[in-house]
Amino acid sequence: MERFKRPFFISLIVCLAIYLAAIVFADWNAIASAMRLLSAELWLWVLVLSLVNYVLRFGRWDIYIRHLQPIAKIPLWTHLKIYLSGFALTTTPGKSGELVRSVYLVNHGVAYKSSVSAFFVERLVDLFAVLFLALAGGMFYAQYQWITLVLGVCLFVLLLLLRMDGVRDQLLNASLRSERLSIALNKIGEWLACSSGLLSNRLFLVGASLGVLAWGAEGLGLYLITQELQLNVDPWMAVGIYSIAVLIGALSFVPGGVGGTEAVMSLLLINAGASAPEAIVATLVCRVATLWFAVLVGVFAMVSLEYSPKPLDVFGAKGKTKDESFARRSS
User: Domain residues for 219?
Assistant: First the structure.
């Protein structure tokens, strides 16, 4: 976990610098006036909607893990803390820090390949869910329709490829001159083979539906903020703005989408009729209540796990099942 500290603090410093610059270059008095419009009750409801997002996504994650590793016996409260702990490192590149869950889950009999496969499918399904919601925003912002349509086609093609047995077999049996590349491709093939069940029609629809509800909840949080600021934004537009901003932030490949998401969200709110100070306030409050609240929740969950009694390794060495451990010793 030490290797995640540096990118985490870098993203935190960059984010604070961006937020401070936005406040300095905008009208500070106007920003202060807009902030005074936000009540404690609003903050409470926006944070509750963020918690709804986390709970729905955990429910999906729990379904994935229990499908891939049905013999694992993880207490629900412990599993929730393990899932939330990943949010502490959500600002790492590609949210790769969230794979810290694998370190905790392996002690409960969940093999690394299972948790990594679940993470991979979770990211893919979230992209589809946010894309679906972003299409709603495309109705109000025609200039962004092409982005969502192109990405939608690419994701659909990717999903079809991932569900083809031939593609997985090619990756599993890849043998190239570069040994490292061959190993990497074989590992990807192994993950795809492990996650194939999660991409079935039923589980994919369940996962995507939970994703739409989860990310839609945070979009509604932005809507509540705009209403408190007395902006002329309806719920669908707010959800669309939030989703487009998150989507473009993800495409920027910047940890946590920091900078890109805030810039797009502010610009879209200005296009919707907000003043620059109002757009900045709405954006900052939304991001604090979603991204950085998630990080804070994740830190508390991780600290709780670190100081909790470690479970007995009843599944064999390094959390693998007994069969896996025996196979390793026999080879």
Answer: 2-330
